Amino acid sequence: MSGKIDKVYTFLADISRLKNEGEYRSVYEQMPDFRKEKADRLRRMQDKARSVGAWRLYMLASERYPISSETPFNLSHSGKYVLCSVAPDGESVGCDVEGLRVVREQIARRFFCPQEAARLMKLPEEERAEEFIRLWVLKESFMKATRRGMSLGLDTFAFDFPEGGAPSLVRQPEDIKGRYYFYEYPAKSAKIAVCSTCPAFSPYLEQLSI
């Protein structure tokens, strides 16, 4: 692709092979010094692998698309997955991937908006955990796109889920201006969400090999 990034692109990779010390070292040696230092500060091997794997994914994306030092991007990782999203210059972007897991209902009641928690509790028990993670990654992607992170309370904004349409915010913090758009990608045993001020998303989740 020539020119500039024209929409939001998202990339996914499985880092399972980086659990092997030799495989990890081969990728580690390709990292810039600041990323090596970040990995070195981590104690657990799985955390090191995710940190190195996420940056390697960004490097691979940069080989495929015209990504410059000015290109907005965001990284995420969970379990065996690393995720990278890039957006057009001047836009904001946030992404999140989370593996499916058992969740406690009190977490939803404590951290989500009352209407969101109520919606979850109405679902059949076998659907509740998956929908919880779906909502979690959407919220994380928004918090990352705003660059506010966890300082932005999970209950300060709320989602609507129109049938057949993309999720959208029905309530947004007053001090955060502009419109944010969301896109979800399917993944085995995980949920993925991307948020951007750019309304155009690639419909394809590009899966790359680390």
Give the SSE map:
Layout: E1 8-14, H1 21-28, H2 33-41, H3 45-64, E2 73-78, E3 81-86, E4 93-99, H4 105-111, H5 114-122, H6 125-145, E5 158-160, E6 168-171, E7 181-187, E8 190-196, E9 201-207
Parallel strand pairs: 1-9
Antiparallel strand pairs: 1-3, 2-3, 4-8, 5-6, 7-8
Q: Ends: how far apart?
A: 21 Å
Average pLDDT, rounded to a whole number, is 92
The main sheet comes to:
4 strands, mixed
Count of alpha/pi helices? 6
Structural class: alpha+beta
* Shape, principal axes of CA atoms: globular
Question: How would you sum up this structure, described in words?
Answer:
This protein is α+β, with helices and mostly antiparallel strands and 210 residues long. Strand 5 and strand 6 form a beta hairpin. The chain contains six helices and nine strands. Helix 2 packs antiparallel against helix 3. The relative contact order is 0.19. The longest helix is centred in the middle third of the chain and has 21 residues, at 125-145.
Q: What structural keywords apply?
A:
alpha+beta, three-stranded antiparallel sheet, 6 helices, globular
Summarize the structure in short.
With 210 residues, the chain is an alpha+beta fold.
